[in-house]
From TrEMBL:
The lineage of its organism: Bacteria, Pseudomonadati, Pseudomonadota, Alphaproteobacteria, Hyphomicrobiales. SUPFAM superfamilies: Trimeric LpxA-like enzymes. Keywords: Acyltransferase, Nodulation, Repeat, Transferase. PROSITE patterns: HEXAPEP_TRANSFERASES (PS00101). This is Nodulation protein L. Belongs to the transferase hexapeptide repeat family. It comes from Bosea caraganae.
């Protein structure tokens, strides 16, 4: 029999109130409390804390606190990635961010999703869809990246945009919903 965590990681319907997942979330909360108190600390000390919790952290990666995530262990950051203040990553499944990507303040990257059918949603089960952000992407402040989105290398996402579908490499996407600019 598969655990709720195994189901979550596979992107299948799972019960987020499962004891193992609640323990993982509590561990992430304790880590965030420590990390978010490090604003005045040297970058090297903050980097060491990122390596402690996240799946992969490239050299020169910076996340300015406060930072919030569900678990942390599903987040992979390439070299030179920069996340500005108040970013949120709901990482029930993989979030991969490529080298040299810059993410503005208040950006939300949300893999968590819910069934569209009302009766199924009422069961309380949820699922996730992975998000992949390429290399050298610039995401403006306040943007929302929704479940299952892929953003190609060298793309730009305008501030405040809501990205509901894939953005090709090199494209500039703006608006709600975000659409590539002609």
């Amino acid at each position: 029999m598969r655990s709720e965590k195994d189901k979550m990681l596979a992107g299948e319907l799972y019960d987020a109130s499962d004891a193992e997942l609640q323990a993982d979330a509590a561990a992430a909360s304790a880590w965030m409390a420590r990390y978010n108190a490090t604003l005045a600390m040297p970058a090297a000390e903050r980097h060491a804390l990122l390596v402690e919790r996240l799946s992969a952290v490239g050299s020169g990666c910076v996340i300015r606190p406060p930072f919030h995530c569900d678990y942390g262990f599903n987040i992979s950051l390439g070299a030179g990635v920069f996340l500005n203040f108040n970013c949120v990553i709901l990482d029930v499944v993989a979030v991969t961010i490529g080298n040299k990507t810059q993410i503005g303040p208040g950006v939300q990257i949300l893999t968590a999703d819910h069934p569209r059918d009302g009766a199924e949603r009422e069961s309380g089960l949820e699922f996730g869809r992975p998000i992949t952000i390429g290399r050298n992407v610039w995401i403006g402040g306040g943007a929302l990246i929704l479940p299952g989105v892929r953003i190609g290398d060298d793309a730009i996402i305008g501030a405040g945009s809501v990205v509901t579908r894939d953005v090709p490499a090199g494209a500039t996407a703006i608006g709600n919903p975000a659409r590539p600019r002609a």
